[in-house]
Structure formats: structure tokens, C-alpha cells
Amino acid sequence: MPEVSFPNLNIEIQHLSDTFINIFGFEIKWYAILIITGVLTGLYLAVKEAKRTGQDPDNYFDYLNYAIIAAIIGARLYYVIYRWEEFKNDIWRIFNIRTGGLALYGGIIAAFAVAYFYTKKKKLNLKLFFDTIAPSIAIGQVIGRCGNFFNKEVFGGSTDSLFAMRLSLENANLSFVSEDMIRFTDGGQRFIQVHPTFLYESFWNLCLFFILIIIRRKYKKFDGEIIALYLLGYGIGRTWIEAMRTDQLLIGSTNIPVSVVLSVILIVSSLIYLIYEFKILKTKSEK
Length: 287
Prior knowledge:
By secondary structure, this protein is α+β, with helices and mostly antiparallel strands. The chain is built from 7 helices and 7 strands, in the order ββββααααβββααα. It has one domain. Helix content is about 55%, strand content about 10%. The strands form 2 sheets. The protein has a 5-stranded antiparallel beta sheet, with no helix packed on it. Strand 6 and strand 7 form a beta hairpin. The protein is globular and about 75 Å long. The termini are far apart.
């Protein structure tokens, strides 16, 4: 049985290694490679947009130095807070991020916080700064999410849909597999067949990326519009995708996924901001 397959698409991958190279016993995983690729791609696009709009590209190189560190810390803290039971008896595990446990939302929140303080210190236009990096964040997420494929993680519940992904049980993360998800081949091998939610999110963000680029180039009306559209679009996508996932981070003892709550907040706040700004534009045009 192949490690990973998409049976309804007739795609089979016999051996999917999550290790890229091994240097003196130190493994560099595909997940890390793809995250770095996403960051560098995003930086390239931000610098290109900065030049087009008359900004200093060096500001984005400098910002990235702080943002990367903050994003890693934020992503880890976010995960640890909502999975505290896993760490409370072994605090040192918090610092071992090579075993996994980074939450995307935590990284985004931290990077946004750094952008706020960075632009304030440098006396830059915060809204323009955010509009410049918004598509970069989206494409970075597209590339980064592909790393979940190599880790065989971030999947949803059982399905027989067109894009259903089949994993042999020996290669799946058992922490997020329930008994009712397990199936058997004719030969008795155990497997799960699930929604590849990492793929859904990657494709959603790719579409969002192109929409943001087109609007920014041809239809942008005010600074802050692109970042608001990014937050709106990402919030909508994350809401329905998160509802499928089996590895949700829950609020306390409830069954409420914290990422869904955050996504709804993003949707509502972004809509309010966009409506407010467009009303101001309409008022000015009528004068």
C-alpha cells in the first residue's frame, strides 16, 4: 500500500520522505524548506511592490529580520497555550519546535504586531505597509502549507470526495485519528481516507493571492484596502476549512475551535472597516 494516495484521482505516492538532506546527523525537513521558500518569495514580491510604489525596499528587509523571530515565537506560544496539557509536565518541550507544534494564526498575529511597532518607529505609512505585504503573506501560506503534505498532517475527517487523501495508518499522525476513521484494505492493512485540508487552504490562498494582486494593481481605492481584503478572504476560507480539521485547537474545555472564532472576528472587523472607508470615499465624491 502506498504511503499516500488520492484514490479518486488515481494518484499514488509509494514513498514520501519528510527529510530533504542529512548533514552530520541533522535533518533538514521539507516543511522547513518550504517555509523558507514561502518567506523569500513573499519578500521578493514585497520589495518589488515597494519599488513600484516609491517606498524604500530596505524597510522590508529590515522588517523581515524581526518578523521571522516574532512569528516563530508567536506560532509556538499560540500552540502551547491551547495545548497546555501536552507541556505542563515537561516545560522544556516548549523550546523543542523540531517535534512540531506551530500554529499559523499565532505567527500571523505576531508578525502583524511587529509591523505595527516597526512602522511606528520608522514613521512609515502603516496601511500602505500592510497593503504591500498582504499578497506576500498569502503566497507564503500557499507554499508553506505544502509542507504539511510531507509531514502528513493537517487533515480533516473521513471522506470519499474527489480529493480524498488516503494514508496508511503507520504513516499518519495518530494523535488526530479516531477509531471511526480507520478503514481496512482487502489485505487487512489499516488506513484513513480524509479531507486534505492543507490542500484546500493552499488552493484558497492561491486564489486569494491573485485576487489581491489584481485589485492592488488596477482597482485599489485607498490604503488599507488590500490588507482588509486579505483578512476578509483568509477569514472566510479558514472558517470552513478549520471546521473539517481533526487537529483543532479548542477554547478551554469547550468544543469551540479558537481559529474559527478568530476567523469570524477577522471577517466582521474587515467588513466594518471596508464599509466605513468606502462610505468616506462616497461622501468625498459627492462634495
